[in-house]
Amino acid sequence: MERILVPCDFSEPAKSAFRLAIEMAHKFRAVVHVLNVIELPIMHDDVLTPMPSFDERLLRELSERSEERFAELKKEVAMEQLLIETKIEFGPIVPTILDYLDANKVTLIVMGTKGVTGLAEVFIGSTAEKVVRHSPCPVIAVKRGVSIGDLRHIVFPNSLEEGQEDLILHVKALQHALEATLHLVWIETSTKASDHAEIKQRMDEFAKRFMLKDYTVNVFKSNSKETGIIKFTQWINATMIAMGTHARKGLSHLFKGSITEGIVNHVEYPIWTYAIKAESGQR
Predict the structure, then answer these.
(1) Dist CA 139 CA 5 (whole Å)
(2) Collapsed DSSP state (helix, strand, coil) of residue 275
């Protein structure tokens, strides 16, 4: 967690993400990068040629407004001895964020999300969902204010597939950093009678194989994976969900969807995500 990025549009969820990032930076001696991306309006002078519809005065006014808002944010942490870097970029939001990650070697993103539902979710998705899908580093999506001290119980849904070594290493690092208990859960959606004892034994073997500590193993019955994860988290009063995502794109994403991205949109808890490499299987 050496370099934490907070994409910031100055909304309440973004401010909540900033406050959590500051707490993390204080604990882990990290640098916080706060990035405000201003997406400029585009007009077309013909069918094929987009033309930028802005001038230097507008750019200056937009930059000055963002600088004022940055100053207000920094007032909240004026007494903290932290390195906070602020940056204003003009361009499309998600590609600009991803470019910033690469250029600044960011190791964690903490970002606010309002979530979306209905047709907007199917065809557009939230900015956080798109960042989760494409980010090479872990992302924590935050909807409302939460303290780092609250994140002591992490739900880790798992179906025990192969090729999770990289994901598990990152989850273990998260658990260690937060000094949390990890709750492994298998969501059982089959209508057939299942041997829960056998599943729990497999999960215990999985945990021992990866040398997990301070964990529980659980099987939870539900009619869908997404619903099961949410209800299990509520049932044990957990405070964070950690999941991998396979970053489906295009028609595959539209028709198959993503459990992880759906949960990012639908729950109030902080969601930690990490993109599993394509060769590691499919969620």
Answers:
(1) 9
(2) strand
The pTM for the full model equals 0.84
Q: Report yes or no: 212 and 183 within 8 Å, Cβ to Cβ.
A: no
Cβ-based neighbour number of residue 52 at 10 Å: 10
Whether residue 27 contacts residue 16, with contact meaning beta carbons closer than 8 Å, is answered with no
Question: Residue 50 in 3-state DSSP?
Answer: strand
How do residues 111-125 score in pLDDT, each as one tens digit?
988 754 433 333 334
Residue 176: how many other CB atoms lie within 10 Å = 12
Helix ranges restricted to H, 106-209: 118-123, 127-134, 165-178, 196-209
Tokens of 217: 């193993």
**Options 3.40.50.620, 3.20.20.100, 2.10.109.10, 3.30.450.20; which CATH number does 148-280 get?**
3.40.50.620
Query: What is the CB neighbour count within 10 angstroms for residue 235?
Result: 12
**CA gap 238, 227 in Å, rounded:** 15
What CATH class does 3-142 carry? alpha beta
pLDDT by residue (tens digit) across 13-70?
Answer: 899 999 999 999 988 889 999 999 998 765 445 555 554 555 778 888 889 999 999 9
